[in-house]
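Example 4.3 (complexes with small molecules)
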Amino acid sequence: MNILFSSTKEKPEFWFPLLQKLLPGDRFFAFPDINGGDIDVALVATHQPRTFANLHKLRLIQSLWMGVENIVGDADLPKGVPVARLIDPGMVAAMGETVIAYVLDWHRHFYCYRDFQQQKTWKRRRQYLASDRTVGILGLGELGSSIAAKLHAMGFHVAGWSRRPKSLDGIYCSTDLEDVVGRSDAVVCLLPLTPHTRGILNKDKLQRIKRDGCLINVARGGHVVIPDLLAALDSKHLAHAYLDVFEPEPLPAGSPLWSHPGITLTPHIAALSEPRTSAAKIVDNIERVRRGQKPLNTVDFAAGY
Ligand code: NAP
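Answer. The structure with NAP bound is encoded below.
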């Protein structure tokens, strides 16, 4: 197989050694070297423009990220070639750690105590039990369902929203967004970015989160209407927001989000792709295609994710 790597964010030198070891008979190329168009598999994550334009023999597009909106939205995407999402157990674990850290930062008021320390103020805030709080998870997929189970095990009430009805042990599952957001003290966004979910966290939804609650967006920047979030923070309806993803990225130096006292932000690091835990999944999909089988975790283009 001829395997092409194209990414504006991931580095081939980070991925190639492990993949070459697992696929010793295959040849690897890094865009723009497309081997005269003779490429069987494209490994992509925020790929370079025109990556797919001259690849007429492609049999698999394997994402190196869990989110695939950049691939799905590419006008050059060859028709009929399966696009597979990366389901990486290392990323699922990392995302769990990040979301739990943010939920606890808000729940235990650490964001306040950091301010109090700056002001040399010795002040205690009221303590809540995990069972006093409901965490709403938007998206009960690979990431959301795992995190919902972890938060439930910690004693939080957990409500989750998905497109299709779901049943998860101990989790209140619903397909009614207003219902889930309305019963939540903290809302975690773990949705794919699609035309249906863009701008979903708007004024109406943010106002439905319980007062003094928080928003955690670790999905994509396009899910949140930023002026509506700033209004919810400035009016003190929301106590804090944790933002890992933005539009555009990198976040411009002039953005008011950098210095807003109600926001903790990180540079899209909530869960990074990890070759050590994902290489076996990628190799498995390549071997399936080599055997003429359907790859796993393919994108449903009608749903957009
Ligand atoms: P997934 O397995 O595809 O799950 C997506 C979930 O969202 C599913 O439960 C799905 O419902 C639900 N959903 C999608 N569209 C919906 C709609 N219109 N209405 C209601 N629910 C909808 O995705 P995942 O692997 O958990 O990843 C989620 C997202 O996390 C990725 O797309 C990516 O953008 C983001 N991410 C961010 C980072 C980071 O570092 N910040 C890292 C990894 C991933 P069904 O269950 O009914 O399909």
